[in-house]
Write a structure and sequence with these properties.
It is built from four helices and three strands. The protein is an alpha/beta fold. α2 links the parallel β1 and β2.
Length: 93
């Protein structure tokens, strides 16, 4: 498990740890979540990403899915819902 404070760090942490699943917020300093998702999937098309954000507008959700997010959960999220999303993404479904 690793944590990043912004999109740039998220990319660095992915390179260091190669996690099975990444959870990514959309609102972050330096590099936002959509830009980080775009770059992560460009570098690592196999990356399994779940967006977990308080941003709930349809355009952001659709863009995240278009960029390759496996799921999009809206904060606050129940622990069970997040666990299900992580398990689903980790299983590649």
């Amino acid at each position: 498990v690793a944590e990043a404070g912004d999109g740039v760090e998220a990319l660095e942490r992915y390179e260091e740890h190669r996690p099975d699943v990444v959870t990514l917020d959309l609102v972050m300093p330096r590099m936002g979540g959509l830009e980080a998702l775009r770059e992560l999937r460009r570098r690592h098309p196999e990356a399994r990403v779940i967006v977990c954000s308080s941003v709930s507008d349809e355009a952001s959700i659709l863009e995240a899915i278009r960029l390759g997010a496996r799921d999009y959960v809206i904060k606050p999220v129940a622990p069970e819902k997040l666990r299900e999303a992580v398990e689903k993404a980790g299983a590649g479904r």
